[in-house]
Amino acid sequence: MRLHPWIKALGLVPLSVGLLGSAGAAPDDAPKKQFDFGGTRASASREINLPPDQQLAQSRSIVGAIEQNVAAVRVQLAAAREVRDVVKVLCLNDKRNQLNIVWRASVERLQSIQAAVTGNDRDRARTEYMLMLELRDRAAALAKEANQCIGEEAGFVGDTDVRVDVDSNIPNNDPGQLGVDPEEITPVPILTSPVL
């Protein structure tokens, strides 16, 4: 089975294989299963049983929400760049790149749902809509991770006060007056490379 590159990149292969392998297998009144892929839970219940035109409308709003997530991370990234917080910039840049991939995949899913609704293909619309729900969950998780990006530790602002405490029990001896015979000290060997 040939899968779209975005599905592979987002780790949705188990979901797409499960959906494509069972499309149309159960009637609408059959008990609905819970799917668990990659830590996210998508319920094959009322959201999936929406009519195709409502799935299309929901998909449009999901794409809009993902665009808002991308914009929010972009603003955070610009702020981190402004204060030159390299650690936070790297973290936010990674999240932004992943969100861009999710956004592009969601736009493709939206086009597929539109084609399925136009062609009156309910099974394809349902499958694409389930993938859209997974993309929504992934985008929400990435936005949450972006909010948790931690930058460099802030340094203390102000004058530095250095204080040195010397233990009074330490003898104050001059190393030259310790009574060591210089002849008893072994000279440091001269090192040469073993490979000439």
What features would you describe in this structure?
- With 196 residues, this protein is mainly alpha-helical.
- Helix content is 54%, strand content 4%.
- A two-stranded antiparallel ribbon has the order 1-2.
- Helix 3 runs antiparallel to helix 4 (86-118) and helix 3 packs parallel to helix 5.
- The longest helix is centred in the middle third of the chain and has 33 residues, at 86-118.
- It is elongated.
- The two termini are 60 Å apart.
- The model is unreliable at 13-44 (pLDDT under 50).
Strand line-up across the major sheet: 1-2
Largest sheet, in brief, is:
2 strands, antiparallel
Estimated helix fraction: 40-55%
The assigned structural class equals mainly alpha
First and last CA, distance: 60 Å
State which percent range the strand residues make up. Answer: under 5%
How many helical elements?
Answer: 5
Give unreliable regions as ranges: 13-44
Count of beta strands: 2
Mean pLDDT: 76
- The H/E string reads HHEEHHH
Estimated radius of gyration: 31 Å
The geometry reads as: elongated
List keywords for this structure.
196 residues; two-stranded antiparallel ribbon; 4% strand
Short description:
The protein is built from 5 helices and 2 strands; from the N terminus they run H-H-E-E-H-H-H.
Map the helices and strands.
Layout: H1 5-9, H2 13-22, E1 34-37, E2 40-43, H3 52-82, H4 86-118, H5 122-147
Antiparallel strand pairs: 1-2
Helix pairs in contact: 3-4, 3-5, 4-5
